[in-house]
Write a structure and sequence with these properties.
378 residues; alpha+beta; Nucleotidyltransferase, domain 5; three-stranded antiparallel β-sheet; 12 helices; 19 strands; 36% helix; LytR_CpsA_psr; LytR/CpsA/Psr_CW_biosynth
Length: 378
């Protein structure tokens, strides 16, 4: 799921706010480091990049596909990080894992601003070597022959061709990572903006935990199981334990805006984690900080594209949680199309323009022009 790997940035901030990188170096040995980016790396231009026509960027239009390909390589200002959360439940091997969340992080050239953009996992894409499918299918396809690294590499290449963005780093966190990290910091405070009913966690008449819904294929429509009371998150602000936070940000089936609502909740959780990690309760408590860094290290698979985790901590030392802006794709509205009986999401022209702004390191201008695309912190 989404938030586990995002915490690499948050943890870097926490360590630096706590007085330097000496403590962090103690934990880098626990981070699983491997080559993930493949052709999506900044210094590895892909053979072909497909950029759909998008509104031209004021003051700096991209005139052709060839120019877009150039912008997607070494000349792009700023840094781009691809964050992938995989839903690998106990007993599943890596080939069975699914890319449940896909987030592009753009860090400004000055290193003092960042923008998070969640890509709908049902986005219609061309997966190299596999034809047209949903975006999250790229990880599964690549992992069948190449394991976790192969899944990420194929997904990253697909995202690069979709957005035109070359990547400077990538990270994966598995299913259990988020719960472990949230528990390590003592939980987080979140404000629920719409009543959210869990399709995964409920209780039967004897108080035993059991799923309250069946997800019926092929659409995975939820069907209520009689006699099981689902976990419900009512509107309002409250404290979340790790299991609650994980369950809350997994929900999409019963939300009015589906996956867009889940993206919003996931991004809000990141800001809540950032606030918690950089609070005195964690930074000022050696035991809590140790638990947090250990949880992050054990949950993370990382590729710094030639830079170590410590190097990335230093690169991000000027980035503060309040300088992170969360942006919607498609304005948070469904933009579905059906092909051969399968429903896909499509990136609308404004979303394609968003990535054009990102390639030019001008997402601040995009946010000014589209304030309704900015997600408010929880």
């Amino acid at each position: 799921m989404v938030w586990r790997w995002l915490v690499v940035t948050v943890t870097a901030l926490a360590v630096l706010a706590g007085g330097g990188t000496v403590a962090w170096r103690h934990y880098t040995g626990t981070v699983d480091q491997m080559d993930l980016l493949g052709e999506a790396a900044r210094d590895s231009p892909p053979r072909e990049i497909t950029i759909e026509t998008a509104p031209r960027l004021p003051g700096g239009p991209i005139a052709s596909r060839e120019a877009a390909a150039t912008d997607a390589a070494d000349e792009q200002p700023g840094r781009n990080i691809l964050l992938v959360g995989i839903d690998a439940r106990p007993g599943e091997d890596e080939a069975g894992a699914r890319a449940d969340s896909i987030i592009v992080v753009h860090v400004s050239a000055g290193g003092d601003r960042a923008w998070l953009v969640s890509l709908p996992r049902d986005t219609k894409v061309e997966i190299p070597g596999y034809g047209t499918d949903k975006l999250n299918a790229a990880f599964s396809a690549g992992s069948r022959s190449g394991g976790r690294a192969g899944g990420f590499a194929l997904l990253a290449t697909t995202v690069r061709r979709l957005t035109g963005l070359a990547f400077d780093a990538g990270a994966i966190v598995d299913f259990t990572g988020l719960r472990r990290i949230v528990d390590a910091v003592g939980g987080v405070d979140l404000c629920v903006d719409v009543e959210t009913v869990s399709v995964h966690i409920g209780w039967d008449a004897k108080g035993r935990q059991t799923p309250p819904f069946r997800l019926i294929p092929p659409t995975f429509r939820p069907e209520r199981i009689a006699g099981v009371r689902p976990q419900v998150y009512p509107v309002g602000c409250r404290h979340f334990a790790g299991w609650e936070a994980l369950d809350y940000v997994r929900q999409r089936e019963l939300l009015p805006d589906g996956d867009y609502g889940r993206q919003r909740h996931q991004q809000q959780l990141l800001t809540a984690l950032a606030s918690r990690i950089t609070s005195a309760g964690v930074l000022g408590n050696p035991l809590a900080l140790n638990r947090t860094l250990t949880a992050v290290g054990e949950s993370l698979t990382f590729d710094g594209n030639g830079r170590s985790v410590t190097d990335w901590v230093l690169l991000l030392r000027g980035l503060r949680p309040d300088a992170v802006t969360m942006l919607r794709t498609n304005g948070g509205r469904f933009n579905a199309a059906v092909r051969n009986g399968t429903a896909f999401e499509q990136l609308d022209p404004t979303t394609l323009s968003l990535f054009e702004f990102a390639r030019a390191d001008r997402l601040d201008a995009f946010a000014e022009e589209h304030p309704d695309w900015v997600i408010a912190p929880s």
